[in-house]
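To fix ideas, we close by showing one paired sequence and structure record:
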Amino acid sequence: MASQSRKGKIRSGSGDGILARVTSTVSESQIVNYGKQVASDATFITKKLMKSTGKAAWIAGTTFLILVVPLIIEMDRDQMMNEIELQQASLLGAPPAPP
């Protein structure tokens, strides 16, 4: 019984505990390696997708600002001018023109 420690546990000759042996066996498994490879590939694809999506969002956003916002402003300005003309016509007593 010289191989027992003070608490009565038997030590293995290699110095590795059962948990360490199981962990090393599992980490060297083909399934674990395949899972790691799939996770790595998924991360790479996600990064590429996010980068291209960001570029597309930037292009769409700047195009919207350059082309659509001025159109909206001009349409709003035209609508205001029509409303002002209708108000002036009603103040002067002229019948409102049909739109």
